[in-house]
Each structure stands twice: as C-alpha cells, then as structure tokens.
C-alpha cells in the first residue's frame, strides 16, 4: 500500500505531468469540484493493471483509505458532463497533434462489450465477431458500441494507429420494444455520427472506411454529399449505367438508371475483364501484397431505395489463395490504389479494440447504472487516444524504449511500449522531488489543495 504522504505528492505531480498537459483542454467541460477527481480517475485508469473499477483506480492512486470514495463514483453516474462535447474536444486535440492538414481518414465499426447483469438494461444477444468464424457461430451477451476512430500516423510507431474519439451505445432491439419505441438500426446511428462529425469539422475533407455492415443505400445516400465513404460491396450487387439524359418534352418521371451491368461475380470470372497488377503496402499488417484489380463506375440501384453513383473495385489474388473481394467508394474520381490504401488501414481499428481489452481493461468495469455505463466505456476507449497525446508531450523531453523479447522482435514501439512510457513518467523518482530545479509554479485548485492537506495530516 502506498503511503498517504507519497500519494499526496503523486496527486500533485499528476497535475503537472504530461498526462494533464494532454487533457488540459477538457477542464472547462467539468465543474471546479469535479475536475481534480477526473484527473485522478484518468491517471489511475492508466496506471492500474487488471480491472478498471473505481476501487482499483483508488488503490493504485494510494487512496484506499479515502472515506469519501463515493464522490469518485458520482463523476460517472451523477456529475453532469457531456460525452459528445468531450468527444469533440478530443477529436480537435488529435487532429491538431497528428493530422494538422490534409484529408482526415476515419474508421467506423461496432464492437461487443461482453457484459452480464440483470440491471444492465441495454444489453442484448449478438454474434461474437472475435470467436465466430464462417462455419462456427458464437453468441455473446453484452453491449454493442458504435465507434469512430481517427486513423493517424504516429511518428514514434512509424505506422498509423486508429485513435478512438467517439463511442456511442447502440442498444438491442428488445431495449426499444420494452419502452414502446421504434428500434434504431445501426446504420441510423452511423448516419447521425457521420453528419455530426461533418458539422464539427466543416472545412476538412473526410474519408470514412467501414465494413460491409454499413454498405446500405440509405446510409450512403444520406452522407455521400458531405464526406467520402469506402466500404465493401456485394459481388451480386445490382449495378447499372448512369441514366441517359432526359429528352426535351419527355413525359413521366426521370429515369434513375441506365442499362444493367454485369455483376462483379460475373466480371471476376469473365475473360474480357481488364485486370491490372498493383502492390499494396501494409496488407492487413503483413507487409506488401501483390494483387490484381479491375475498376469502373456504376450506379447501385434497388427498387424503392436511393440510387447511389459509385466507383467499384474488384480485387483478386494472383495466387488464388484469397477469394475475390469488391469495394465501393462514393467518390467516383478517387484512384483505385488510393481507395484500397484507405480501406487497408481499417484493420487498425481491430488492433485498437484488442489493445483496449489487453492494456486498458475494457470489459472489466462493473458499473450497472445507465449513466455510468454510457460514460465509462467511451472513456476507456478514449484512454487509448489520451495515452498517445500524453506520449507525444513527454517525448519532447524523454525517450521511448522499445521492449524486446527472445520470441518477439519489434522494429518500432507498440501501444504497450507507449503506455509503459507514460506510466514510467508518472511513477518516476523525478516526480517526487520536493522542489523542482526550475522556478516554476503550479496552480492547484482549492478543493484539491484541501484534500491534500487532509491527506498529509492523516499521514502524520
């Protein structure tokens, strides 16, 4: 157990550390009484190893004897603060730090947080994407989250990371039916998120990559004029030529499509299809991959649904080890190589989900109230991005060490090295000096200063 006096000094150093420099932009989203508690919870969630419960956070921060422990729980289940406002602020910080100019590449996907409990109202039964395969179906009871992540180059990692900044709960159909409401589809939530991001960043071009779950005509029609969408495309999708120009004086409704084109499944086996060899880098984290592609433009049409003009790309493996795959892009002018490069980076979102479970304790929190659930999991995922921001601040005066093993050789640091670097900076002996070498002053909120005074008196 940490000595209370040491804990008091540690809490003071958290305020002046690279972590707080990374999150200082969030201070105006909380009250003056809640902000010191928020900093302690965030620092403890990074330092904790194992479950990310509030009690585990207090223990690692040396506050296991805190009699008013309930005030830390209230930050999650009672204190009024907006997760969407925090998401917008986090996105602005990430864009400024890692992608200050050029188009923004984002990834959209859903994940299942495996949770049980009779009081968790929004949980449902879903297909477990991690444990299931094409021939084996596994069900999972839990919460479904829809996540938006910024895919940005990380200088010290020498690759792109998917940095979460916005996660919203997508309750099960039973949740809505029990309340007499019409269920919201996952694509409805996705449309709301994408249009919201467009309002947040009206000046920047945005490209969003998603899997086949979001290849829905209603969703593509709602957002294609605002941003560019890249998803998988069904091989049997009904593709047509654009509608011919309307003749002057013609009667009736304008045509929405032209002649029917061959399906992509037919093109994949047709000898007349023109294939071009290209080499794609970072093919799902496995290095360079030589593939053959065919591309073209078409109109995707289905009766009673919007008509979507798009560019399609058909990809096949020259070695015939992989089945042909098809992709679509709502920007018809985009180059096929660029479209595939965008989509390949979507794999980083799966890496982020795995790292969040392994290093940030996702699925180990134990809150059951609706308010706490809606706040805790988005914060756990956002910690991934906060750690990246803190590491960027700390690297201005420190060095990130890449840890190696006999069975695992790494060319560049990973997220595990990054979070270890941030933890070392918080726990270093340098943080426990009575006075710094420079004449700096750190302003401490009055509420936290009184708390520190009580802790020191208790230690004596």
Features:
460 residues; 15 helices
Question: What do these coordinates show?
Answer:
The protein is of the alpha+beta class and 460 residues long. The protein is 37% helix and 18% strand. It is built from 15 helices and 11 strands. It has helices spanning 4-16, 18-23, 34-47, 54-60, 70-77, 83-98, 173-178, 186-200, 217-223, 264-269, 336-344, 347-359, 370-394, 415-427, 446-459; strands at residues 104-114, 124-127, 139-154, 159-169, 206-210, 228-232, 239-240, 276-280, 289-300, 308-316, 325-329. A hairpin with an 8-residue loop joins strand 10 (308-316) and strand 11 (325-329). The longest helix is centred in the last third of the chain and has 25 residues, at 370-394. The model has no long low-confidence stretch (mean pLDDT 88).
Q: How is the topology of this model organized?
A:
Layout: H1 4-16, H2 18-23, H3 34-47, H4 54-60, H5 70-77, H6 83-98, E1 104-114, E2 124-127, E3 139-154, E4 159-169, H7 173-178, H8 186-200, E5 206-210, H9 217-223, E6 228-232, E7 239-240, H10 264-269, E8 276-280, E9 289-300, E10 308-316, E11 325-329, H11 336-344, H12 347-359, H13 370-394, H14 415-427, H15 446-459
Parallel strand pairs: 1-5, 5-6
Antiparallel strand pairs: 1-3, 2-3, 3-4, 6-11, 7-9, 8-9, 9-10, 10-11
Helix pairs in contact: 1-15, 3-4, 6-13, 8-9, 13-14
Q: What global shape is seen?
A: globular
Order of helices and strands: HHHHHHEEEEHHEHEEHEEEEHHHHH
Oligomer: single chain
Strand content: 15-25%
The first-to-last residue Cα distance is: 16 Å
Low-confidence stretches: none
Average pLDDT number: 88
Radius of gyration: 25 Å
Query: What is the count of helical runs?
Result: 15
> Structural class, from secondary structure content?
alpha+beta
Number-wise, the strands total: 11
* Main beta-sheet annotation: 11 strands, mixed
What is the percent of helical residues?
25-40%
